[in-house]
Amino acid sequence: MLGKILLTIAVIVTALFYIRRRDLQETTSKKPKKKPTQSTVTPKTDNKVADDSLSADLRLGAYMFLVLMIGLGGALYYFRWQDDHTILTITLHSDSQAENTQYQVYKYQLQDRSFVTLDGILVTVASTERMEVLGLE
């Protein structure tokens, strides 16, 4: 999961550097050839102001979308982590033992027929035992 996040960040940073470099090349390549007259300055200035305004709005929208996506991704990751670290109580019922055995387990450590306790003990459930899980919703 961390690798996916780092890869996404690397792609975003690379795209930002590419776009910035392209914008710098476009601004340096544009040089006025001759001094324009008063009649030609007004329409071009209006178009340029409109283009700059549109560009600024698109850039703001892109940054807002980026912040939204990173925020949603972070929130989903946090909620998943919180759910995985829920502590469950597992009770093993065995025919050969009169008393049941209880274990405390993180939810992400629970497998089909085995689990790892909070103490780090790997427990494999036999086919003759019955496993009861408390705390799942």
UniProtKB/TrEMBL annotation:
Chain residue ranges for the region called Disordered: 28-49
Keywords on record: Membrane, Transmembrane, Transmembrane helix
Protein name: Antitermination protein NusG
Sequence intervals crossing the membrane: 60-79
Lineage: Bacteria, Pseudomonadati, Pseudomonadota, Gammaproteobacteria, SAR86 cluster
